[in-house]
Structures are given as C-alpha cells and as structure tokens.
Amino acid sequence: MARTGGAAVTAVLLTASLTGVAAARDSRHAVMTPMSGFGAAAAVGAAAAFAQPDGNGGVYPPPVNPSSADPYSPAVGHSYRHGVLPTIGRQREMRSWTARHPAALASSSLNVTYGGGFTGPAVMTGHEKVYLVFLGSQWGAQRTGPNRDVALSGDPSGEAPYVQQLFKGLGTGGERWSGVMTQYCGDVSYNTEFCPANSLHVSYPDGGTLAGVWVDESAASPTSATGEQLGAAAVAAAAHFGNTTAASNRDASYVILSPTGANPDGFNTPSGQFCAWHDDSADPNLPGGPVASPLDVAFTNMPYVTDAGLNCGVNFINGGLAGLLDGVSIVVGHEYAETITDQYPPAGWTDTAGAETGDLCAWNPPGPSGTNNLTLPTGTFAMQSIWGNDASGDVGGCEFSHPIVTNNWVLNGGFETGTLANWTASGATSVAMSGVHSGRFAARVGQAAVTSGSSRIAQTFTARGTHLSFWYDVTCRTAVAQSWTTASLTDNTAHTTVTVLPRTCLSHSGWLRISWSVTAGHSYTLALASRDAAGVTAGNGISTLLDDVANS
C-alpha cells in the first residue's frame, strides 16, 4: 500500500517526464531531484498499489495532487498556495485527470521527505501557538460565549467559537490525532524520509494550541483580499500579540479568518476553487510580493468555508445541523497539520511533487484511514487523516491516530529498555519492575540493605529543549544526618553545578517531580546519588526510584 486517496482526494502530480527529473519544491529554491524512469506497466502497477481498503467494503481511489502538472489544480498559476485544499468538486476533476495520466501518479509515489529547512524553520518543535485573527468589521459585535469564547454577531454559522474550541482541545484528553505529526522532525539532512532517534521532532501540543484571538475590526475586510494583504494581516497580528521577534514567532501561526461573503484570493469563485491554503509572509511569490516587514510569519488563508456549502465539507461526516461545521474543522485542521510540518514552505515535509502531509489524505471518506469525528474534551470535530511515512510498515499511508513521539534528549530516560543502558552506575543500582512512575521499569539507586557507602547513577547529554525534569520516590528509614538522597545538575559548557534535589530522607516520599531550566545546546550531567552512613542498622538502608527523566 502506498499513498491513499478518498472520495475526493488530494495529492500533487509531478511535473516531470517519465525519465526526467522532479521539479523544484517552489520557484524560490530550485532543487532538481533525479527520478527513476517508469514505463507504462510501472505506471499501471503503481496505480494498483495505491488501492487501500477503506474499512467499508471498498477501497480509496488513487490520490491526486495540486500542481502545475494538473490543469485543474487550484495551485496552477498560484505557487504561493501551499497545501492548497481543493473544493470537493475540483478534486473530482483532478482525480479524473489523474486517471487519464497514470504515469504522473507513478512518478510521485514516494513518502514525504524533509526539504532541508533552507527558507527558515521547517517544523514547529516547541509548543505550537495558534492565533486566530477575525479580519474585518463585517464580523460584527463581540460578546463572550458560553465557553468563554469570542462570539460574533456577523457569524451566522457559528464558526468563531467552533474553531476556538477545536484549538483549545487539540493536545488534551490524550488525543492521538496530533501524534501523527510528531513523527516528523526538523534537524535532519535534505531528503531524509525517516527521523532518527533523538532528532528534534514536531512537538505534541500538550494542553491546547490556542494562544490568542483578535477581532481586527479597524476596517472592513477586502472583498477579495490578495495573498499579500492576508500576509500583512498576519504580520499586524504578530505585532498585536507582542510577537515582534523571530524567536517569538518560532512556533507561531496566524489563521486569518475572513467574514461571510468575502472571497479572499478568489475563494468560492471560478478562479479560486479551493477551501484554504497556507504560506509565509515573506514569500516573494505572493501577489504583490512579500510583505514589507522584518518579520516572516506563518499564516493560513481561512475563508468562511460554509459559504461554499457541500463543496468545502458541510455535512461531510455528520448529517443535519450537526454537520454544518464539518468542513470548518476539516479544512483548518488540514492547514494546521501542514503548517507545523512545513512552517515556511517548502522547506519542511513534502513529497517529490510538493504535496504536504495533509494534501495526501484530503477528503478521504470515513474509515480507518479517512475522515472521522475526533472527540476532544472541548467537543467533537470532523477531522481528516494525515500522511504518515511510518504507516503500513514504513510504506506510508494516511493515519488518524499515532503514538506521541516526544523530544527527549536523555537516552533511556524512562528505563523502558529494562536496563540501565546509557547511564553510568556505581554502588547498589538496579532496574525496578514494581512501584514505577510510568511504563514497566524505573531505576533503583541504593537498597534496603545497608551499603555503608554511596550509590550513584548519572548521564551526560546535550540539551535540545529548555526544560529538564525527572520523577523520584525516596524510601529512607533513618534520618538525613545518617542517610540521604541528592541530585545535582552540572552544566559542562558553563562549568557550573547546581543541587536540584537537596539531601533528602523520607520514610516514603511517594512520587515527586523536579523540573529545572536548562540552556539548549549545552552539555549537562545529571547525577542522582544515595548514601548510607556507617552504623545504620540492617534493613534501614536508603532506596530511591528514578523515572521519566526528560529534556524537552
């Protein structure tokens, strides 16, 4: 199984001859990638390989991709429309074109790969911050909704509170849709397909992604805002929220929501058969050129998609009023997933033809690899699946759920290898299989039997995140004057040492957490030690469990 499609499926077709080369990811950075030749039999075989069961007795049709190869693509003549999501009707036309040109499908039948980060940060590796910008006085009067959301009188479909609840809910309640994106990373070489251990991954949005809401009613929204005007609105929003440096925008994106009746970049017109797209404000391919600003910010053109009705997903999953906003969450979720994996396109994760992680699974019907309801603590939202390179044994496919990959630069920090691998140990140290904080194992430093000496476990690592944390559980049956546990953190780069856990002796502390700020790029040594003093009676030694050591 390779790339999966759907009832109206998106993908990008390669502009290349059968024995030619893959075109550039975009005109800013022409990168020529050799492609192997495909004969007619290979093309037909590739199309057959794309057939994937949809879980409902059928199969997903082969994918199609928005690119200049396909005359029906909304990206034709609009190279700034990255991750463009065609309308369902336009998607059908693209799929029909693909069926008549199977060689183009075969030539782009690869997983997504890393673009090298040459236009700026390629993926969001810190906590994602989504800022919602309701552009224009047409949005009407503001009030506070029942969930403390901003509600607007000029919002007949109720899109504003719905989108706020979606971004408040992502990363909460243990949802795993966001886990799909965490398999991708941003510190690897060009054309990397799979992220090695300890690479810098897309962050899981623990606790939600909504960082701010601004109703910019300083003027009416343009009837048909250009890409450059939308980018300028994003730059203005960055200033409004105080994000005036590159660092403060490192993991930020600005969703520019136009009011009902507006046609941003030609949305819902014959020249704009799309539902949304994303880009960055410094893209020279924007109509009118890049935004005149020292900042380069990621933004999404998010029209009032219910204006397009069924063509942009109304009732795509749910019937009646329950499905009125299906397309809103499908569309904005599509662009969000692509933004965090390709923040400043096309430097992040795309396939050989430029399709992003959302494009390859767009408008799939319901099913294991399709579009489904995602239940969050803040509500239930229709969401599409996202391309995962690791699906189906690394062949690749659309995934709706995925284990969370965390950015932990401490090796074997949870001791789930069942060993003390990657740690330096001395004295009475072992692996515990009961009473652990999480998982199946923890490290034990010291023991109930008196050792009349010190036991120690330590690891030296290079910090990639700015926080270090660990959990410990002390059992000490004497007094701190005789026995104790302590932990230190040495900054080998700055040549400083701090005591993060002072000498401690508790009869049973229970699991407690230590958290400390560290400097990314510095080398550190974390050490936890326990000591029994001479004269302690038998059976009254000190034992400390250590678990879930993490740098993130």
Question: Based on CA inertia axes, which overall geometry fits?
Answer: elongated
How many domains? The number is 2
Low-confidence stretches: 1-61
Number of strands: 28
Strands ordered across the widest β-sheet: 5-12-13-11-7-10
Describe, in plain words, how this protein is organized in 3D.
With 552 residues, the protein is of the alpha+beta class. The chain is elongated. A six-stranded mixed sheet has the order 5-12-13-11-7-10, with helices on both faces. It has a five-stranded antiparallel sheet with strand order 19-22-27-24-25, with no helix packed on it. β24 (483-491) and β25 form a beta hairpin. It has seven helices and 28 strands. The model is unreliable at 1-61 (pLDDT under 50). The two termini are 35 Å apart. It folds into two domains: 113-399, no CATH class; 424-551, Galactose-binding domain-like (Jelly Rolls, Sandwich).
Briefly say what this structure is.
This protein is an alpha+beta fold and 552 residues long. Helices cover 13% and strands 26% of the residues.
SSE arrangement:
Layout: E1 21-22, E2 33-34, H1 40-49, E3 52-53, E4 59-60, E5 82-86, H2 88-100, H3 102-107, E6 113-114, E7 129-135, E8 142-144, E9 150-152, H4 159-169, E10 210-216, H5 227-240, E11 252-257, E12 274-280, E13 298-302, H6 326-341, E14 349-350, E15 372-376, E16 379-383, E17 386-388, H7 391-394, E18 397-399, E19 424-426, E20 429-432, E21 442-446, E22 454-462, E23 467-476, E24 483-491, E25 496-504, E26 512-517, E27 523-532, E28 542-551
Parallel strand pairs: 7-10, 7-11, 11-13
Antiparallel strand pairs: 1-2, 3-4, 5-12, 6-14, 8-9, 12-13, 15-16, 17-18, 19-22, 20-21, 21-28, 22-27, 23-26, 23-28, 24-25, 24-27
